[in-house]
């Protein structure tokens, strides 16, 4: 490509970002103009942070508990492979892309925070009720971010239900209708399959995750309706 063409292309690329920037600015200005929404966003963030910090402490405790080893015929279909790179790529790229897509939709971000808070609480409850030992032949999945946040303790017993699958599915639920939802739904399937092949989770862990997410999503919307807060979509 000639230098002249590159110079012509650059203003076009910059101009294409203007509608997005204007949409983000306008939507957040409108959202922020309502005092009730500012308060709701603040408290939603505080509660989410508190639940996530509690979850980190719970995961450390959960590693010390004895659990059951499940017989899972589906795991025997696949030869275990280390797909950590693919799993990390999917989860972190998915979060970045979802943030970019959702920035013009502050209401969806607010509800997403609330859904994620309920999901995290449900996951702690599920792991407490259903303690499990890692599948035989597990290839440990070491998430560099979570390892740092968890003081370097390797987490292998955070099994029922799959947090990686649930996170991808919640992002899918929060996205506005369009092609991105299909991209993320495909990502959910690839994530779930990768976790099973690596034997990080039992198949029931990844199968159950979307149902818990649906439940968390429905619960939040129901509570918002009862409280008269609206959907903000």
Explain what this protein looks like in three dimensions:
This protein is an all-alpha fold and 233 residues long. It has two domains: 1-33; 34-227, no CATH class. 70% of the residues lie in helices and 0% in strands. The chain has helices at 3-32, 35-62, 84-102, 106-129, 144-149, 163-174, 179-197, 203-227. Helix 3 (84-102) packs antiparallel against helix 7, helix 6 (163-174) runs antiparallel to helix 7 (179-197) and helix 6 packs across helix 8 (203-227). The radius of gyration is 20 Å and the shape is globular. The protein starts with a helix and ends in a 6-residue tail after the last helix.
Topology as a string of helices (H) and strands (E): HHHHHHHH
Q: Please outline the major beta sheet.
A: none
Proportion of residues in β-strands:
under 5%
Mean pLDDT equals 87
Instruction: Assign the structural class, choosing from mainly alpha, mainly beta, alpha/beta, alpha+beta, or little secondary structure.
Output: mainly alpha
Task: Tell me the span between the first and last alpha carbons.
Answer: 42 Å
Report the uncertain regions: 6-15
Gyration radius, in Å:
20 Å
Number of domains: 2
Total DSSP helices: 8
Helical content stands at 55-70%
């Amino acid at each position: 490509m000639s230098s002249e063409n590159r110079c012509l292309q650059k203003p076009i690329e910059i101009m294409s970002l203007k509608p997005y920037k204007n949409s983000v600015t306008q939507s957040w200005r409108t959202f922020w103009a309502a005092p009730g929404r500012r308060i709701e966003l603040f408290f939603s963030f505080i509660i989410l942070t508190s639940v996530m910090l509690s979850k980190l402490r719970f995961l450390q405790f959960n590693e010390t508990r004895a659990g059951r080893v499940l017989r899972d015929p589906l795991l025997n279909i696949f030869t275990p492979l280390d797909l950590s790179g693919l799993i990390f790529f999917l989860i972190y790229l998915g979060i970045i892309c979802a943030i970019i897509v959702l920035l013009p939709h502050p209401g969806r971000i607010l509800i997403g925070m609330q859904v994620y808070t309920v999901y995290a609480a449900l996951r702690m409850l599920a792991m407490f009720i259903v303690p499990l030992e890692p599948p035989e032949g597990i290839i440990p999945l070491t998430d560099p971010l979570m390892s740092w946040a968890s003081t370097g303790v390797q987490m292998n017993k955070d099994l029922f239900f799959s947090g990686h699958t649930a996170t991808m599915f919640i992002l899918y639920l929060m996205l506005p209708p369009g092609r991105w939802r299909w991209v993320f739904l495909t990502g959910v399937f690839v994530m779930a399959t990768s976790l099973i092949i690596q034997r990080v989770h039992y198949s029931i862990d990844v199968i159950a995750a979307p149902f818990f997410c649906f439940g968390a999503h429905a619960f939040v919307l129901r509570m918002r309706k009862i409280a008269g807060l609206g959907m903000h979509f």
